[in-house]
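The passage that follows is intended for readers who have already worked through the single-chain material. We present the inputs for a multi-component assembly, then the predicted structure in tokenized form, and finally a short commentary. You are encouraged to pause after the input and sketch how you expect the pieces to fit together before reading on.
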Amino acid sequence: MSEIDELRATVDVLAARVRALADQVEIMQLVAQYGPAVDSGSGEAAAALWTEDGSFDAVPHLRMRGRDDIAAMVGGEGHQSLITNGCGHILTVPHIVVDGDQATGRAYALNIRWDAGAGRFWVARVSANTWRWVRTPEGWRIAERVNASLDGTAEHRDMLAAPTRSGR
Amino acid sequence: MSEIDELRATVDVLAARVRALADQVEIMQLVAQYGPAVDSGSGEAAAALWTEDGSFDAVPHLRMRGRDDIAAMVGGEGHQSLITNGCGHILTVPHIVVDGDQATGRAYALNIRWDAGAGRFWVARVSANTWRWVRTPEGWRIAERVNASLDGTAEHRDMLAAPTRSGR
Amino acid sequence: MSEIDELRATVDVLAARVRALADQVEIMQLVAQYGPAVDSGSGEAAAALWTEDGSFDAVPHLRMRGRDDIAAMVGGEGHQSLITNGCGHILTVPHIVVDGDQATGRAYALNIRWDAGAGRFWVARVSANTWRWVRTPEGWRIAERVNASLDGTAEHRDMLAAPTRSGR
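Having made your guess, compare it with the prediction:
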């Protein structure tokens, strides 16, 4: 192999490594936008984190399909009441496994609310979250998110098991 | 274009991508140092995360300007009382938008305190945080941070809206 | 220096920078797996995050040495009772300092539990965490983790001070 071919091969390997890192960081940043979007009441910004037909299940009550459903949730009475009374939707950095143009992840979401009477916040929900992301021409987007309370329900905590273990 | 010029162009593109990733990771790591600094009472370490004349507003009470103000806050009676009674200042990974040598971000901060009588912690504050960082010869530093409780105040939750939306 | 030697030198510098970023991201992802592993009751998955003889001190009660101890803790009565009643072990992204094949870090862990009677969660613990990681042929692993409640104990909050300050 010529000197330049060798160097080109080195650069190719490096480029693949950079792409893998960029995937991780972009997905972290995608997830980091959810809380700020919904807690500022930005329904379209929240919806835009999903693919056009992406899904979001907030077990057991909310089953959203497509961006319009997500924007409608943010604009809806329940969510508006939450944020006007004071609320933070706090997501943790997920464990991310990228496989080509798909990726899956596991993480937590906290829902913490202001209690004006008590002068303190209270933790309404700590949830298991599973994510499926897809690479689109506009970057990574959420294809599927499931959020289920860690209230002792076996199926909810099983969501946090590694994909290889549960066969997902 | 010669073979080597072509490869050099490829490397230049890759280098720009790596710089963008490094910006993201460095800013994440800058933010990750705030909590440990203040909760260990390390006033100078906390102050060093800011630029020399950086600002930190903890709405509505605290208006800090420059590193000395920040170090003074950490060494002050109020903060010392917090940490000797048991307290964690927990910041989330921000959504980061880099624009050259400037960057802005949005995230959350939790202030959780030990209640020795009850034998449990309580959530004193969940706050919206907006950040402005600048690239300095020593690396990224905080130029401006605003922290405001998500207690239902409209202006506070509006801080979490994306910059393009609110025109910031 | 010939053109190709110059370009090779540029690529070498870039490769070192990518390696440094990869270390940061891999360690973030290592830490992101702890909570999901223990909250899904996956003892072996949790243990595999450590080196074979890695240690985990949950001050003051639990002193684990080696993977078997960690897996045994996850399978043990205490932890099983936590997760079947509803619990989230939430870790923050650490501040990470890499030094060759070793790295150290500082961060927080939250232990938040479901109270079925009250219909809300409560914060059982906010802890300082110090980490030591090592690079192994299989990637970064935890060599040492110490977890100690931020309940006002001076030694616990000192864990969060920067290594250079405390001489660690």
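Commentary: DSSP finds seven helices and seven strands in chain C. The mean pLDDT of chain C is 96. How closely did your sketch match?
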